[in-house]
DNA sequence: GCAAAAGTGTTCCGACTACACCCATGC
DNA sequence: GCATGGGTGTAGTCGGAACACTTTTGC
């Protein structure tokens, strides 16, 4: 930023503590549910409310590092997809601003993450509550976290339509209907015909057939595919719809 | 954000000053050039470098208000389009962090704005340099501002393709080739055939024919159109391409 | 008349939709 | 065999790309 040559009269600059709050999504592929990770607060303000996992940024720590730290403190996960969302920074968004020392404001740089549900172990740090909530059953959250969540959900849907985030969340090899199920749970049941989805996906040429099959109960065994990062590379910057 | 119950060992939280830097674009419709507003720095660090207009957030001021203030301090403009871009907040992005009091970090919440070139009067505050730069001729800027600019330019192109920002920047009434010129200067000459662009734009039904004509030198006079906000309302949340 | 700019129409072709249908497995 | 899920094919339609052509002005 820029220092503006300050007018003779003293302009009071605000002092900030900067927090990072992360909307962490995962998809329960068994029950086909979109989940968000929430933590229960044990202190004021908003004692007893659920909130998005977050933390305050430490000395020498970058925003990304802080966001990463939240992920590794709450869940054990091999970092999957993480991106900055939006910065909420109005005055009075945090009740602590009143109690605290003069002029300290709390600013939240929100992030959104998508993790692989199956690879994820919640870290039950003692008594504390930490849980996956189906998106449809999220209660009233602390602070402006409902707003952040709404924003994050929008971004998730955009991301999944226009970028291959889905493959970050799928296992190494997967069937085409795995992909379809994932899209359907994020975007809603009626987003596309299954067979047309198949065709488009294959036509892109970003999936490798592993020549292996998997049999899951009744029905014909499905081919297993792998995401081909090299084939995708040239398409990376082109606008593309994974619809 | 969330206060994490702090471990017995003291964790040092960083203290921040928060700045707002804004990438302000406008389109010179005479010369068909995309312009960015830059200001010349007169103090250290980066004395003598050009930078994005910015300011530090004051007590009681929201981020949006600070961004607005930058716009009105530098140029006289009836606020046209403004949105938050990205927050840059790594440690050591600002050299002042070393000189300053212990642990103060500088964080930049960048914004991007699109203003109407013709309606804009630069406020020459004394000696200071402030100027519109053609995007192609932007020099090495202070801080990480080149990076912010690149990011902003990307966002501008996305915005103009998927939302009707263009009409915020056009005069009340305009010809279809005015719109085309605008798109061409932002997206590059070869983004689309003119006549197909026309057809698509009209088919959307968001333009009202004012029944008036304008004659600009040689050639057949062009019809003047007006953006129809009401007709656009229902399409607002649908994905749409103005390509 | 001619150049310049606005505006219209037409043809081609690829992509998406909505299905119907075939295939391989468990039981 | 038959239910279940995987996989292929096709006919109809919509929309964009490319480009030729017409209209209205200034000079």
TrEMBL record, chains A, B:
Residues 17-156 form the Nudix hydrolase domain. InterPro entries: AraR_wHTH_dom, NUDIX_hydrolase-like_dom_sf, NUDIX_hydrolase_dom, WH-like_DNA-bd_sf, WH_DNA-bd_sf. It holds the Pfam family WHD_AraR. CDD domains: NUDIX_NadM_like. Coiled coil: none annotated. It comes from the Bacteria. This is ADP-ribose pyrophosphatase.
